[in-house]
């Protein structure tokens, strides 16, 4: 009996598929050290932006996620570590933004108060 090309083709597919699946199983992402570092830097920026005073909950969420990411990394759960590091970085960035917003609003209120005091001293009417 003569082997047809179709029969040979299925064997060829099978022979190529096994190494491809083996390589796909071995392929993994590098450890999330860069993500952890970025999260640590974001938490440090939030601290520098006085988030402890203006965005306590967001900063605490960032710190908790960062410590959980570090713990996950320590036990080899790199996927969890990567996700938690991203959550930490996002929460820290949110804390920084909210802190900066609160400081800007406080500065605006102070400037408006100063303008009102100057208008009063000059005897000008408040335009509101």
Main sheet characteristics: none
Strand content: under 5%
Ranges where pLDDT stays below 50 over 5 or more residues in a row are 21-26
Instruction: Give the termini separation.
Output: 100 Å
The number of helical runs is 5
> Using only CA atoms, what is the Rg?
29 Å
Mean pLDDT: 85
- Shape category: rod-shaped
Protein name: DUF4398 domain-containing protein
Signal peptide: 1-24
InterPro entries: DUF4398
Organism: Luteimonas padinae
Describe this structure in words.
The longest helix has 45 residues, at 78-122. α2 (33-48) runs antiparallel to α4, α2 (33-48) packs parallel to α5 (78-122) and α4 packs antiparallel against α5 (78-122). Residues 21-26 have low confidence and may be disordered. The chain has 128 residues and is an all-alpha fold. It is rod-shaped. Helices cover 83% and strands 0% of the residues. It has a domain at 31-101.
Quick overview:
With 128 residues, this protein is mainly alpha-helical.
Record keyword descriptors for this entry.
DUF4398 domain-containing protein; single chain; 128 residues; mainly alpha; 5 helices
């Amino acid at each position: 009996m003569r082997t047809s090309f179709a029969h040979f083709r299925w064997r060829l597919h099978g022979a190529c598929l096994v190494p491809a699946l083996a390589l796909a199983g071995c392929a993994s992402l590098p450890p999330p050290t860069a993500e952890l570092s970025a999260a640590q830097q974001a938490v440090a920026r939030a601290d520098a932006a006085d988030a402890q005073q203006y965005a306590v909950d967001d900063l605490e969420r960032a710190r908790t996620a960062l410590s959980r990411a570090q713990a996950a990394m320590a036990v080899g759960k790199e996927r969890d570590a990567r996700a938690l590091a991203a959550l930490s970085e996002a929460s820290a960035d949110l804390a920084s933004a909210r802190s900066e917003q609160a400081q800007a609003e406080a500065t605006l209120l102070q400037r408006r108060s100063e303008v009102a005091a100057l208008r009063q001293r000059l005897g000008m009417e408040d335009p509101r």
